[in-house]
Write a structure and sequence with these properties.
heterodimer; A: alpha+beta; Aldehyde Oxidoreductase, domain 4; Aldehyde Oxidoreductase, domain 3; 7-stranded mixed β-sheet; 28% helix; globular; B: alpha+beta; Ubiquitin-like (UB roll); DNA polymerase, domain 1; 2 domains; 5-stranded mixed β-sheet; 6 helices; 33% helix; 16% strand
Amino acid sequence: MATASSTWVGKSIKRKEDLRLIRGEGQYLSDMVVPRMLYMGVVRSVHAHARIKSIDTSRARAMPGVVAVVTGEDFKNWKTILTDASIPNLPGETKRPLYRPLPAEKVYHVGEPVAAVVTRNKYQLEDAMELIDIDYEPIPAVIDAEEALKPGAPLLYPEWGDNLIYHQRITSGDADKAFAEADLIVKERFQCHRCGAQPMETRSCLAIYDAAQGLTLWLTTQRPHNIRDLLADYLEMPHDKVRVIQPRDMGSGYGTKAPFYREDIVACALAIKLRQPVKWVENRMESLMNIGQERDQIHYVEAALRKDGKILGIRDKIIANDGDGQVGIYAGFAMPHLGAMYFINGYDIDNIDIDLNCVVTNKAVLTPVRAFGSYASRFAIDRILDIAGRKLGVDQLEMRRRNAIHEFPHQTALGIYVDSGDLLGALDKAAAAMNCGSFRQEQARARDQGRYLGVGFSMGIEISGVPSAVLVELENTPGYGVATVRIDAQGKVQVAEGDSPHGQSHETTFAQAVASELGVTPDDVYVTYGDTFSTPFSTGTLGSRGASYTISAAVLAARALRPKICRIAAHLLKLPPEAAADSNFSFEDGQIIWNQDRSKRISLREAAHTAMLAPTKFPPGSDLNLEHTYHFEADAPGMHSCNVHAVKVEVFPDTGAFKILKYVAVNDCGVPINPMIVDGQIHGGIWMGLSNATSEEYVYDEQGQQLSTTLLDYQMLSSADMPSDIELIDHSVPSPHTPLGSKGKGEGVPGMVPAALANAIEDALSPFGITINKLPLKPEYIWRLIHAER
Amino acid sequence: MKTAVRITINGEPYEATVENRLLLVDFIREVAQLTGTHVGCSVEGRCGVCTVILDGKAVKSCLLLAVQADGCNVLTIEGLAANGRLHPIQEAFWEKHGLQCGFCTPGQMMTLYDFLKSPKRSDEEIREAMAGVLCPCTGYVHIVEAVKAAIAKLDAMTPAERQALFPL
């Protein structure tokens, strides 16, 4: 590691983002108004599966204020949205649903866009959309993924011959041999419900077109550069005529704003056609019907164990309900695929046989949500450990010690490279925080009083960015981090990144890291992002890549500037040229100081100002360019953090209700750049994990009608619903592959939650002998398990 | 149908003839152009990010029509900082990292404004008071800490100083 002063790294300073946000001066997309702006609304399917017989738009067109109406007819000759560039390029057998911005013939889920209306004012939109008359011919729908696999099931895409969009057999070692040699084989079916996320700011876009500059799309997106590429490709427009901009502020994403969505294409098409800006702001009902639906997976797990608890081999038949598969970049199966690749997670299991089946149904397509694809698989793996342990008489902690990855770096049998971490140390800390030494006595005493207490654990690895080796296959995009650092004429430091933060605090943490490299304060560093015309290409804000990849690029770009700054300073200080080496200077308090004689110093401001505005003061040919762009690709095929969660609950068997008495998360993020911000990411992840595991659910009836189309139905936990005793314990192990040792934090956190909670509830209820194999963990479900056993 | 209304927001009167169905939140955002107040749900009143103070009480401005607020006094997030000084609520959210994406923050802070006028102070009372505004980013831990920090700041003030911070 270089000797850069690390003054600001590790400090919980207040965020630079906040001053505008706490004053109500944020600039979100829905706040934007431009001259001549029109409003777009989307009329959506009321059927899960139907042929469109006809659409009568005449009443809407005749309404005053209506500027345009478009339907599938207008897009009939457009190409399909899922092209080679926008569908995962994975090794399994892949089928491709053909779909266009609006459908001309069939609809595949309730809430699918069918027509778009443009008006001059947004209240008129509501009236106009009512006037679109669509005649449907409903056809049988299939909602359940296992039903969809049966012969004779309704087919979404009859030309496929089945409903299997993606299939892959993933094997390692010799699973059959492991099962033949096992002392115990356990089998269980685990089911995770459809849940995920609803960002508080819904999706929105503002498309502006003129013939000279082309198309500018302001968009709530986590990956402006990828969307620009895909949009230019899809619209067959020159790349220099397509500009995508993520506004400075965005009301979160959690993964949901990463895909290439069709409503945005419709808005662009309308802006181009009408030569007027078109704005679309999704409402909550549309959001609930179309995005943030993830985790809908069934796992048939079989584990082969030695009697000491060691898992010798594991089989898993995964059936993922992908919905209709119609979304760019992910096509619904990128998530279950990655979930399968992370199935064994932080456990060292050699012999594996996974049969991954991703199935299309008449539900909304799965879209990414943090704990991408692995919420369900982590529930399954950490549950099977406890189920097997109980049969073998091996306790929860011992099961984990026996099976965890012990040495780092480690390559899992499924090819995931885990660079650093300490699972066993983290487990010890979690056990100590839960007083595991005395808990069994406490549990026994409580049971004597008719109270049911339990503890549960989960353990595993969390992605810290996704390396190109994985991401190019998965999402047709690289994993490297990119940042440009430039010193401006006043000695302030600008960092431009191609990622698109929206709550992750890049303006603060990047400023802390870069300020430390250049001996200035975070106030001297400003971070710009969002505009594809002025930031370097990058994959976007997702997968906890900010603190691993992108910040590393910023740090290394700043380091690359130091020798240049030193040469400039040496010249201005009239030092001999051989004195100019970086190691001869210290960067402190905005000064560049010659170590040999600290009275020889010059401010960064003066050095930069002179270099930029008075180049005549330097010999001809001097390199005065104080800007550097760094592409950071880690010199390892993956970086991960290692974490353990533990939950203590009291369960009330008469009602099935339970109360979380204590929640402990032991966390690794390499080197925390701002511990307060890291804690915030973990708190949010635990919240999502709990809210998903106990409350949130996208509910469909047998005909595919969505029953959870308001936030009163899709219930997210409030402050009053959350446990008050949540303890975070740092157990960071620096990554050897990043310049600061930092790793990402946040994306994977929710995945730790459901198994830890289920394990605790089952532990509390061990006298009843129940097995929890489904989510969500609602009192009714727990009550039924208890009473079925009675 | 249209009606002429006059609504005072952050001390400034706004007069307009509006459609009767215009929501108060749209009056605030579009007529007064105060976009600090946000919309997070489809007029369900569940997300709470549009919460403002109306004649001294926290209300969800998506559940009221502008005509219902005719003649009323409204305080929004833009009105919290008086004379260029941050309100203790704003300072507390900043210091305790009570926000991430910031989209629900206006609703959280205006809800807290109402709560702080009550004598309630316990952990449970805080969590119940804030339950009307959803925040999927923070898990509420730092929000609760921000509430406690705001309480501590106010408790350190004289009654007159406190009074001045709660004009509505």
